[in-house]
Design brief:
By secondary structure, the protein is mainly beta. The protein has one domain: Nucleic acid-binding proteins (OB fold (Dihydrolipoamide Acetyltransferase, E2P)). The chain is about 0% helix and about 25% strand. The protein is built from 1 helix and 19 strands. A 7-stranded antiparallel beta sheet has the order 11-18-12-15-16-17-19, with no helix packed on it. Strands 9-8-7-10 form a 4-stranded antiparallel beta sheet, with no helix packed on it. The chain has a two-stranded antiparallel sheet with strand order 1-2. A hairpin with a 6-residue loop joins strand 13 and strand 14. It starts with a strand and ends with a strand.
Length: about 270
């Protein structure tokens, strides 16, 4: 649920946030490890711009593989995860093991979930694509069987199973792209929660700095030695045929490598 601040100060006037789930106190310690800060630097040199100075953060170990096949688990609680846009759910399995999974929409505390090759098609269950009916919304889909979910892991995301042919499933991504994935790959049923995440307004620069986001300077405001867009008299704009990155590569339009080996798995390209 999206919460908007009252107009008390200029910085808070347009700010908003998401209501966080209740804090968990019985989560196993091995599922929370300290996340080391790199601040966008390697060997003292900036390798990733606009990163650094964030708050201390713990990484939650997520079970993207859903490896406990055939073992039923119960949803114990939901938790906020600072490392991703979607909330996570704590699952306790019948053998006492506890793991984190991504929280789909409609899942409640006390619900039962299971991962199996031929599990019931129900929200939170994980099963192979060949056993899922066409038109089902999915998330956490494997690109390679046994590798763990890589597609559809952001808040509000849902991939739609459109067809099955020649040993591959055709999945429509949120971008509009249609991609082929092996039918033996595992996928979890349902759309992910926190769909209002995209509507959050930070309100002030301080919130971005605590997340590790440093200020970004426009290329047109820099000098020509620092950026291809720089230079010129007064506000002269980009001054190039097409926008470029700081390193001179195209930044707008079709920037995907034409010879990339995964091109053969793309049935329909997204609209650029």
């Amino acid at each position: 649920m999206l919460i908007e601040y009252k107009e008390k100060t200029n910085t808070r006037r347009f700010a908003s946030k998401l209501k966080k789930p209740a804090k968990i106190v019985d989560a196993p310690k091995h599922l929370r490890v300290i996340l080391k800060k790199h601040a966008g630097r390697s060997g003292g040199k900036v390798t990733v711009r606009h990163q650094g100075g964030r708050h201390k953060r713990y990484y939650r170990v997520i079970d993207f593989k859903r490896g406990k096949l055939g073992v039923e688990g119960e949803i114990k609680a939901f938790e906020y995860d600072p490392n991703r846009s979607v909330n996570i759910a704590l699952v306790q399995y019948a053998d006492g093991d506890k793991r984190y999974i991504l929280q789909p929409q409609g899942l409640k505390v006390g619900d039962k979930v299971v991962a199996d090759k031929k599990a019931e098609v129900k929200v939170g269950n994980a099963l192979q694509l060949k056993n899922i009916p066409i038109g089902t919304p999915l998330h956490n889909v494997e690109l390679t069987p046994g590798m763990g979910g890589q597609l559809g892991r952001s808040a509000g995301t849902a991939l739609v199973l459109q067809a099955k042919e020649s040993g591959a499933a055709h999945l429509k991504l949120p971008s509009g792209e249609v991609r082929m994935v092996p039918l033996e790959s595992m996928a979890t049923v349902g759309a992910l929660s926190n769909e209002d995440w995209k509507n959050i307004n930070l309100g002030k620069a301080g919130r971005a700095r605590r997340m590790g986001r440093r200020p970004s300077v426009r290329g047109t405001a820099q000098d020509p030695r620092s950026h291809p867009h720089g230079g010129g008299e007064a506000r002269s704009g980009v001054g190039r045929k097409k926008p470029m990155t700081k390193y001179g590569r195209p930044a707008v339009g079709k920037t995907r490598n034409r010879t990339k080996w995964t091109n053969k798995y793309i049935v329909k390209r997204r609209k650029s």
